[in-house]
UniProtKB/TrEMBL annotation:
<keyword id="KW-0573">Peptidoglycan synthesis</keyword>
<keyword id="KW-0413">Isomerase</keyword>
<dbReference type="InterPro" id="IPR004391">
    <property type="entry name" value="Glu_race"/>
</dbReference>
<feature type="binding site">
    <location>
        <begin position="3"/>
        <end position="4"/>
    </location>
    <ligand>
        <name>substrate</name>
    </ligand>
</feature>
<dbReference type="InterPro" id="IPR018187">
    <property type="entry name" value="Asp/Glu_racemase_AS_1"/>
</dbReference>
<feature type="active site" description="Proton donor/acceptor">
    <location>
        <position position="66"/>
    </location>
</feature>
<protein>
    <recommendedName>
        <fullName>Glutamate racemase</fullName>
        <ecNumber>5.1.1.3</ecNumber>
    </recommendedName>
</protein>
<dbReference type="InterPro" id="IPR033134">
    <property type="entry name" value="Asp/Glu_racemase_AS_2"/>
</dbReference>
<comment type="similarity">
    <text>Belongs to the aspartate/glutamate racemases family.</text>
</comment>
<feature type="binding site">
    <location>
        <begin position="35"/>
        <end position="36"/>
    </location>
    <ligand>
        <name>substrate</name>
    </ligand>
</feature>
<keyword id="KW-0961">Cell wall biogenesis/degradation</keyword>
<feature type="active site" description="Proton donor/acceptor">
    <location>
        <position position="177"/>
    </location>
</feature>
<comment type="pathway">
    <text>Cell wall biogenesis; peptidoglycan biosynthesis.</text>
</comment>
<dbReference type="InterPro" id="IPR015942">
    <property type="entry name" value="Asp/Glu/hydantoin_racemase"/>
</dbReference>
<comment type="function">
    <text>Provides the (R)-glutamate required for cell wall biosynthesis.</text>
</comment>
<dbReference type="Pfam" id="PF01177">
    <property type="entry name" value="Asp_Glu_race"/>
</dbReference>
<dbReference type="InterPro" id="IPR001920">
    <property type="entry name" value="Asp/Glu_race"/>
</dbReference>
């Protein structure tokens, strides 16, 4: 599983909950985060570099737990590796369509994800009559990477960024960046109780389960899996955020610098 930083831990948490017997090897590219402002070529290059690193572990699946990387690199990576590759955009779109009652869906994400139009395309393919409105929130992911997602500063940034959406009649809002669930409390407070927030992690975990089941590759060992976490930036900050989000499940897992050779 890979992400531009710590955001993909939101997917990790849900996979651990739904598939507790599966071993996860996670790489967060914290040294080059965020991906949102970067060019598509850069994001494709970085994603392929991380996949090259992860392939040494002989995974049975690659999960691109990053919306920006999913938007620009998913199909390329699917053609590149011999194992199934899952992204987070279509699972998020499906979850939103199941939740909405009015068919008016909001999407917030990084500059790169919103610029790609990937969510609008996915929603329209799944339900042609849905109406979607998107807004880039480039300040959100850096807050999370700095560990400030529960601060008063975060609430102020969220309030300012989402103000244009509050007057719209949307009833569902897709958190179109895996960093954004860290800010769920602030986003819900700003948007109000009538707007349902969609975190793609739950649906992504279900898709992972379905694919592995169909291939006869679901883990059945009764032993507790030993997860591995790698990052390209500050391991102390990564571990601090991971522990806060995942709890004790990461306490025995070292977070180490392992990507200096390709930075």
């Amino acid at each position: 599983m890979l992400d531009s930083g710590v955001g993909g831990l939101t997917v990790v948490k849900e996979v651990m909950r739904q598939l507790p017997q599966e071993q996860i090897i996670y790489f967060g590219d914290t040294a080059r985060s965020p991906y949102g402002p970067r060019s598509s070529d850069e994001v494709r290059l970085f994603t392929r570099q991380i996949v090259d690193y992860l392939i040494q572990f002989q995974p049975k699946m690659i999960v691109i737990a990053c919306n920006t990387a999913t938007a620009v690199a998913l199909e390329e990576i699917r053609a590149y590796v011999p194992v199934p590759v899952v992204g987070v955009i279509y699972p998020g779109a499906r979850a939103a369509l199941s939740a909405t009652k009015t068919g008016y869906i909001g999407v917030i994400g990084t500059d790169g994800t919103i610029r790609s139009g990937a969510y609008e395309l996915a929603l329209k393919r799944l339900s042609p009559h849905v109406e979607a409105v998107s807004k880039a929130c480039p300040t959100f992911a850096p807050l999370v990477e700095k560990g400030l997602f529960q601060s008063s500063e975060a609430l102020g940034v969220v309030r300012e960024s989402l103000e244009p959406l509050r007057s719209l009649p949307l009833d569902t809002l897709i958190l179109g960046c895996t960093h954004y669930p860290f800010l769920t409390d602030a986003i819900q407070l700003v948007m109000g109780p009538d707007v349902q927030l969609i975190n793609s992690a739950e649906e992504t975990a279900r898709e992972i389960s379905t694919i592995l089941h169909d291939k006869g590759e679901l883990a059945h060992s009764l032993d507790t899996p030993v997860h591995q976490f790698f990052c390209s930036g500050d391991p102390e900050m990564f571990q601090k955020i991971a522990r806060a989000w995942l709890g004790e499940q990461i306490c025995a897992v070292p977070v180490v610098w392992r990507m200096s050779q390709i930075l």
